[in-house]
Amino acid sequence: MSAIETDMLDMGRRARAAAAAVRTAAPEVRTAALGACAAALSRSTSAILAANGRDVAAARANGLSEALIDRLTLTPERLAGVADAVAEVAHLPDPLDRELARWTRPNGLDIARVSTPIGVLAIIYESRPNVTADAAALCLRSGNVAILRCGSDCLQSSLAIHAAMVEGLVEAGLPADAVQLVATPDRAAVGALLTGLEGNIDLLIPRGGKSLVARVQAEARVPVLSHLEGINHTYLHAAADADMARDVVVNAKMRRVSVCGATETLLVDRAAAASLLPIVAEALIQAGCTLRGDAESRAILPGIEEAEAADWSTEYLAAFLSVRVVEGLEEAIDHIRRHGSGHTEAIVTGDAEVAAAFLNAVDSAIVVWNASTQFADGGEFGFGGEIGISTSRLHARGPVGAEQLTSYKYVVRGVGQIRP
Amino acid sequence: MSAIETDMLDMGRRARAAAAAVRTAAPEVRTAALGACAAALSRSTSAILAANGRDVAAARANGLSEALIDRLTLTPERLAGVADAVAEVAHLPDPLDRELARWTRPNGLDIARVSTPIGVLAIIYESRPNVTADAAALCLRSGNVAILRCGSDCLQSSLAIHAAMVEGLVEAGLPADAVQLVATPDRAAVGALLTGLEGNIDLLIPRGGKSLVARVQAEARVPVLSHLEGINHTYLHAAADADMARDVVVNAKMRRVSVCGATETLLVDRAAAASLLPIVAEALIQAGCTLRGDAESRAILPGIEEAEAADWSTEYLAAFLSVRVVEGLEEAIDHIRRHGSGHTEAIVTGDAEVAAAFLNAVDSAIVVWNASTQFADGGEFGFGGEIGISTSRLHARGPVGAEQLTSYKYVVRGVGQIRP
Prior knowledge:
homodimer; alpha/beta; 7-stranded parallel beta sheet
């Protein structure tokens, strides 16, 4: 066994030991710890920014793109935002020990389903230093213990953020091992996490690009909660209001093109295409979007590019939108079934019956009527934060906040009942 | 690609196609289908029993144990029980399209969390022909589509039961592919299921012994809901009523020794061991149980066997019980933490505060106060049936009935909201 494997196994054992303490800590203790973590982050500003400066300098030396360097860079304002986010999680309602259901059996047994933590979560993410604090805070709020593995480009920043978080934990009387950070950039550490560290990891959460998620899904020997791509659709039904259609589509596509809730394909009813498409397209093009249409939409919008087969299955994460004219609801649903990724789909229509049929038939994590797909976000759902949007169909689907990071157990109370 | 792999991929594609029809079928259609399946099972009695006779004859020729042959054998009464169980599932409340939560955001967005099917479930089980009907019925009730893979010893019986189920499905207007049975005993078919059939399996459920579950967990490339072993404990606290302790322990161990909810280890407080143990042990021994004790319990019960280290981590599934004297609550909890499998643990005590501490600290799927661990059962919980007891911490924990075989989606209703 290599030194890294030995270290990782030790990390797993320490996480499991810490899990019992975090799980049984009172909610106020976890709340206090989150407050202490936020305060520690604030007072560690100069140390964290200095560490971040080293990461950014190395990134420049390594020739990383400006987009990646921007994602990596912390400023005093951004770091204050990170601390504020942790403080907000401290104020979220505690998701543990909630009675999710309770009933009495004919034999008098009193059965309650009560929320519990999952246990030890391993979170593997790319070079966004803020995730070190965000993910740890959500784990702590939900009574879980975290093993964090960041991208190597943000390791110095993450180590400094982690040190502050540990100060907060220890101040509040929780074990330092409640949040551990893998301190080596060696990729063997990821391999060790994927094995589950001898039963000491209950859930893996990959948070990052397609190749990371694909590797975790292919190799993991423990359950994975993954966020796959969002090939999201907005469907303009014939009974859509033109102004609403324009505003919703422009927002769904262009508010931020790089988020997983961005719309990637626009479907328009044939009956309304000639009236709706010019209005919507003009606003999109003005906002900087390139349209790629099928033959029918290009007949209405002659200047736009031609969509190829691959466009219908592409998550652009960029200012491109594929456009297709459909016969009606059935064809729209069928297109989504064949090309969607099960993330978020919206319909714009004034017809409540058509909307209900769409919301029922479309089998995505989030289905939306008359609003932007960009609302696919834990914060917008009121979860106070998220660790991602799950496209899994097991455990949690859609935005994953503190509540979704819980499990449950059954508490059965009797008076001496025996089973016949 | 082998012929079996090709056949299995085709099975997966047909399951996915059927899933859309089953998911969007009205609850009454699925209820009617379950009723029709039960009726078809009844009128197919002679065909099913004849097929079962061929399985049993082959099993005898192959030298299977009497216990396995008994498990395999259908009688007219047992088959009537199978049909009745399907009819009961028809009467279970429909778990789909339930609003699990609903709230309105400050921007007016109306967000509902609504239960949905998971999709395509593959169930791999051993030679219990009744599972063919039970599992299919629970899948259907929850709007899922099933691919069933039975042990080779019950293949003829399962094919006959499956044929009856398909009659019922088709009568009710559901696709025949809603319940498929792998018709070959070739083990390559299991390997194909574990790969997920190109994304066409959403969840694997192994239902059987340790080696089957271990293989599935090691090789599956899709989520697995597994039922691991039940190394369950009953803890007699010093404030336990002696009669209740005796009745509960005898039931927990001896009602049926082969079920996963059977108690395997008895823990007794030192302060009450001398008074409680002789009473409990006498009743156990009279019921045919062999006790294996630690030094302290053997000092009180001199005739019993000596427990070895391995006994504390053994799921006997037989009339053996390991017995240990502990200092008190803390030591009992610690023993369970180190040796338990997270399935079901009980405390017997008249002290409500001690009970509450035990129920909170013990991190098992089911924790019980003053009742038998053998209540760990979907039917006893009022679920109307179960596909197993999950010791997973993700998705479903404890008894898995129709409700636990659902996922959810978010339905977001707006009036044209866009995200700032």
